Amino acid sequence: MEIILKEDIANLGYKNDIVTVKSGYGRNYLIPTGKAVIASPSAKKMLAEDLKQRAHKLEKIKKDAEELAAKLENVALTIATKVSATGTIFGSVNNIQIAEELAKKGFDIDRKIIVVKEAVKEIGQYKALVKLHKEVSVEIPFEVVAEEA
User: Are 89 and 123 in contact (CB under 8 A)?
Assistant: First the structure.
């Protein structure tokens, strides 16, 4: 089933993308919740016209994402967490903690666009990917350290 996305959906696509999904997923979830519409020929024509009219606005959004990516290039985070005697973290560090640390540095980044590449269960150096736009993403290095008792 071909559909046109009305908003960004993780692991599927971005707004105004035409994607193919299984019929049940489209019919039972995406279309009823307003996240997508069926990609009929008339809907595709409307999408093409909309994209033509919004090209300059989309360019501005991309430019803003690139500017934010340039600011994030030099950011390195240090996340303090509770650690056992062997150096293993109680729990794990995920995108929520990274978003909180970025907020402390003045960057208001939605946690949903932050991807941690590997499971963070020990003290050490790691990298997270922030997907600011479908063509713009930036890697942020972060270090996990033991919290002072």
Answer: yes
